[in-house]
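Summary of Year 1 activities. Much of the first year was spent building the evaluation harness for sequence design. The harness presents a backbone, in tokenized form, and records the residue chosen at every position. We chose the following record to illustrate the format because it has been used consistently in internal testing since the harness was completed.
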């Protein structure tokens, strides 16, 4: 398979689009909700995906045994509506205290002010279908836009939209997620079977064919600056050589597990949401070992998103049980937090100290779990 990078001819192929801020109209007030929280469930390391999972105890405290301060007895959840039809896919806490989100169906970047509930939207251009959004070292939101087949930067002050199109021989990459490495270079995935990078200083997008073709999905940077991605269709974890662009596949223990999202903890361990296997996986690059735990729940779990906070606690979303799930690696205990309304479909999580944010794509809302502590 050809692994040579493919870059557009010339240096900077960036399109500047002047986008006006669109008013979202009257914004309904946010609502604080206290769901019936499930109690902690002991994880089952290495459980078979077909193994039954015990129902969790409804109405019990979401605080694991031992009184972890991360989750109070009643989880502190607040939901914020965004304009109808937005289908918010990913979120990223902004440097101003707000939260950016990608409005995939509406083709917009949105900004929520949690203090007021006010939402403003920035159109991204005809045919836009943004998937991922992150905040770069420059403090600006960067998006992976499958509709435009481009990496997009939005200036938070002027709202100017700058596009960095993929090379012409990758016309339908189905762009997914992005991350910045330790040197300020943006790396991205495309489910059509591509991964690549953009050096903002040069403005050049390079791309490579992914191992096994279709599937690259989640991507993350470890504390040492190394970049890792997972393949949903290919069912693997991969490390990218940032100098050559070569991707090295690391096989999880469970075949066909459907690795969907990945995140690194403060120690550099990689946590993987295994969609097909109903499991959380953990890979330690220091010694090459894996651990896997099956998620609890009365329905068949479907772990989609994974995020690890600054204290090493893992957070997942479970489509099968319509829940946000906390996992403490030190106790190997899960604490599911059921969401108040069905069909939330949270596809990604991201946070800052004391807060875990997600986008309820099925309900046109953003949601935050406040972990009841100061940074």
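For this record, the design step produced the sequence shown next.
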């Amino acid at each position: 398979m050809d692994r040579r990078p493919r870059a557009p001819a010339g240096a900077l192929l960036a399109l500047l689009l002047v986008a006006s801020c669109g008013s979202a109209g009257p914004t309904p007030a946010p609502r604080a909700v206290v769901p019936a929280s499930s109690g902690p469930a002991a994880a089952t390391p290495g459980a078979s995906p077909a193994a039954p999972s015990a129902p969790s105890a409804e109405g019990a405290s979401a605080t694991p045994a031992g009184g972890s301060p991360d989750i109070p007895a009643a989880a502190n959840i607040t939901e914020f509506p965004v304009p109808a039809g937005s289908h918010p896919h990913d979120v990223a806490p902004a440097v101003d205290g707000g939260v950016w989100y990608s409005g995939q169906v509406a083709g917009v970047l949105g900004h929520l002010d949690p203090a007021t509930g006010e939402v403003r939207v920035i159109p991204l251009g005809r045919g836009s279908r943004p998937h991922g959004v992150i905040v770069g070292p420059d403090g600006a939101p960067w998006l992976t836009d499958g509709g435009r087949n481009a990496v997009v930067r939005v200036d938070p002050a002027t709202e100017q939209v700058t596009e960095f199109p993929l090379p012409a021989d990758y016309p339908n990459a189905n762009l997914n997620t992005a991350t910045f490495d330790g040197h300020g270079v943006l790396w991205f995935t495309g489910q059509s079977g591509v991964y690549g990078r953009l050096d903002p200083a040069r403005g050049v997008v390079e791309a490579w064919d992914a191992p096994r073709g279709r599937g690259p999905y989640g991507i993350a940077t470890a504390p040492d600056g190394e970049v890792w991605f997972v393949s949903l269709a290919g069912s693997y974890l991969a490390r990218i050589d940032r100098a050559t662009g070569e991707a090295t596949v690391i096989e999880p223990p469970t075949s066909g597990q459907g690795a969907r999202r990945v995140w690194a903890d403060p120690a550099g361990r990689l946590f993987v949401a295994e969609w097909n296997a109903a499991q959380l996986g953990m890979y330690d690059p220091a010694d090459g070992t894996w651990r896997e735990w099956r998620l609890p729940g009365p329905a068949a779990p479907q772990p989609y998103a994974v995020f690890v906070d600054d204290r090493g606690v893992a957070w997942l979303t479970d489509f099968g049980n319509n829940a946000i799930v906390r996992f403490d690696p030190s106790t190997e205990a899960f604490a599911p937090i059921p969401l108040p309304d069905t069909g939330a479909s949270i596809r990604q999580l991201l946070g800052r100290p004391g807060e875990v944010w997600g986008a309820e794509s099925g309900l046109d809302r953003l949601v935050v779990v406040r972990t009841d502590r100061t940074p």
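Confidence is low (pLDDT under 50) at residues 1-23, 34-39, 45-70. Quantitative recovery figures across the full test set are reported in Table 2.
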